[in-house]
Amino acid sequence: MRSTSILLLLLIFPLLSHGQARNTKRKSPSTYNLQNREANKFLEKQWWLGFKAGMNWSRANVDQTYDVISPTNYSLAEKQYNNFKDPGITASLEITFYYKGFSFSLQPTYRNSNFSYSTHYEWDDDEEPTNRLELDYNQEQRIDYAEFPLLVRYDITNTRLRPYVQVGAYYTLLINANKSVEVSGIDYASGGTNHFTDEPIIVGAKDLFAQYQWGLMGGVGANYHLGNIRINLDVTYRQGMSLANSTENRFANQKLSGVGDAMDDFKLNSFAIMAGVMFPLRYLSGDFKSLDF
Question: What is the CATH number of domain 45-280?
Answer without folding.
Answer: 2.40.160.20
